């Protein structure tokens, strides 16, 4: 028996026009095969234009960008960081690189992202013992926008900067502004499964009043912290975090098709939403039209608590047909590595989403037939 063609959750999708290869070719022809060059500089410029941020630094990963964002806020050993609980570990790991203390904040049922109510309780709890976080790290999971109006209001009240993890939400618009412009610092990822990819890479976006200086400092750290001298001199700890000029070429080509990819991802979401409208146990992830225009990076669904079909049943049925699906992220407070950290709950929404949720195949190369194949397998589980 021949195996059915694999359908991926989300896989790299290069432009039909071959933009990526043109930029790579240019890098070869000019011999800028290095972690600097025209593609790197132009990729930063083009992202700034697209998103509307003040300055950007192209780095080797989104994780590296998160690390340097924390360093820009002078995060040191023992400092508190309020961090969204429901996310990928890459959001939280850099907090540990600096030996700071994450406090995980539960999600909101309405947005799946940080609950403003739980965030307020976290501020109050630590204020009572004379402590304040150095930063609040929010995430726009699966391309759904966090409640930025409320979160910004609360962070202003407590005079605490925001780091925005927009790794999954490039192209998502919240009230007329792109995600990536709400944090003092924001991060993007161009990993292989993201809405656009450079094969691997990330970017730190600066939206502060001193954005230019912040970008300069980031670049300094990312390129081994070399002092201005005629020899190799170092007054600070450096990192090798810069993006390669080849990688940046792929990123530039991909940026040209970002709008197309968002359009397709949104269409995928609509098809699922329509198809599952008559399955009472299935609720698609909440998108608030009029407030946000989500990039729908992954289309996710939650199953009713009393559904006889479980998320695992869905995954196994799809896997048997060579189709990839996944659990929703497992919250950080449930991770063995972060077991000692404080957690501010909001009715354990994150845990509920982890237990009842499924990320459906959201690959932009899927055809109508592929989607019918997926939908039929899922609906048959209820027969
Ligand atoms: C992918 C991702 C990251 C990390 O990006 P990398 O480029 O893989 O290091 C960070 N946060 C979230 C929410 C992500 O999905």
TrEMBL record:
Entries under InterPro entries matching the protein: DegT/StrS_aminotransferase, PyrdxlP-dep_Trfase, PyrdxlP-dep_Trfase_major, PyrdxlP-dep_Trfase_small
Stored SUPFAM superfamilies: PLP-dependent transferases
Keywords for this protein: Aminotransferase, Pyridoxal phosphate, Transferase
Matching Pfam families: DegT_DnrJ_EryC1 (PF01041)
Segment forming the signal sequence: none
Oxidoreductase is among the record's keywords: no
GO-annotated molecular function: transaminase activity
Family: Belongs to the DegT/DnrJ/EryC1 family.
The protein, known as: Aminotransferase class I/II-fold pyridoxal phosphate-dependent enzyme
